[in-house]
């Protein structure tokens, strides 16, 4: 392969561009056909503003480019040449969105938006699909900085770039380490993870309940124990479920994890974990360990713990909970606080599993001489250290730093309580709540399942109240999640199920032998051929409208 280099950098206060090694730096390049490594060797300290290598690429007329989104929720799918990639929406660009830092939820601060059809970008790995052949490229080292893969299907080129913002390079620095392979879908992902030398931490499925998609933050000890009792009143319930998770709403504010809402949970969280254990189930708890709600005591009392912008003021990193900040994981006191929180949750309260959410917040800006990628990897390493051998579901987080580090991973956006991706949602950001995006992400990230971690496609919901899905859509989503997921959670009070709902619930959670045989998408219609218990089956539906043709 022939590559063309481009570097924009600062040296001695002067900005320069270069297409080859020069008096300021050397380039060491090692290539063996399947692996390309590029090391930048500066002659004086450099601040790299932009770095990429470009190659010509002959895209077939019907080729598809798979763009892996920045974090769990970012839309991920195969794109055709005539399609256009979404960007930060009008609400995200509005004064409201800017005030609440919506731009930090995705890659909007360091990746230029794609403005034309046929131009796309992908994080960490990507492929070009020509029929049933996959031409794959993946980064083998993003700890040095995020690797971003750009495709311009109009001009016929691919670019492999590195986000090095915040890093002063004063010695030999590995900028890119890329792996290339071709083959079937399974073959290319097998080869990639063999090259990465990464294996998943578990092969176990977790199945059961999470409180979020029914009550959201309006939970209480009474509601949680009632739904637990209802679930465990089912005959032979332990044949179907093994985990019960409490989500957001038990604490007085995000960040104030030791401050339990005494009106909602008068007996504390240990009682809840003990009650779950008495039923023979794993007890799970939701946390946003790097978040500090604007109204929290932790933010008010410890502003020095918060991630700051260039002006020295804390950065708002999202609009949830009327705005929240991020903890600086390199601040020793903040770091110790995070460790103390996990000790309380896991060792004192006794929870077995933590769903760790909004993890992108730790690395929204370069700091302390580190790139965003370095910070993201350090953040996940800290969490694994804190959690030890208990279980982690990662969520709202960049995928590659979590390879081999978390047990389960949300691979898509939050499911909506209805199918349609409406007008408002399209004007937020690429990470917003969306059933179609959750489905796409689950399909096009399936290669990570059983290789990097076990995948969580998000919930299935069978209740008839507080829901906009039609019953047949609920059943299809349940079968879809069963086919692709290792986390099979619902948020219903099963005491409200009729016989049909209960049968669907038990069918979704039953242990079956199943395998995806083929996937095709044309004009939004997804066809999934699969085998279940030796029988050939098909699932066919419109991902945008929820219209079902076969399942």
First-to-last CA distance: 44 Å
How many beta-strand runs? Answer: 28
- Structural Rg: 23 Å
Mean pLDDT: 96
How are strands sequenced across the largest beta sheet? 23-22-21-20-17-16-15-24
Query: Number of helical runs?
Result: 13
Low-confidence stretches: none
Briefly characterize the structure:
Helix content is 23%, strand content 28%. The chain is α+β, with helices and mostly antiparallel strands.
What's the SSE blueprint?
Blueprint: E1 4-11, E2 14-18, E3 25-31, E4 35-42, E5 46-56, E6 64-67, E7 77-79, H1 90-93, H2 95-99, E8 119-123, E9 125-130, E10 133-139, E11 147-152, E12 157-162, E13 168-169, E14 173-183, H3 185-196, E15 206-210, H4 212-215, H5 221-232, E16 243-246, H6 268-278, E17 282-287, E18 291-293, H7 297-301, E19 324-326, H8 332-348, E20 353-356, H9 372-387, E21 391-394, E22 408-410, H10 423-426, H11 435-444, E23 454-456, H12 471-484, E24 487-490, H13 499-509, E25 514-522, E26 525-532, E27 535-542, E28 548-550
Parallel strand pairs: 15-16, 15-24, 16-17, 17-20, 20-21, 21-22, 22-23
Antiparallel strand pairs: 1-2, 1-5, 3-4, 4-14, 5-12, 5-13, 6-7, 6-9, 8-11, 9-10, 10-14, 11-12, 18-19, 25-26, 26-27, 27-28
Helix pairs in contact: 12-13
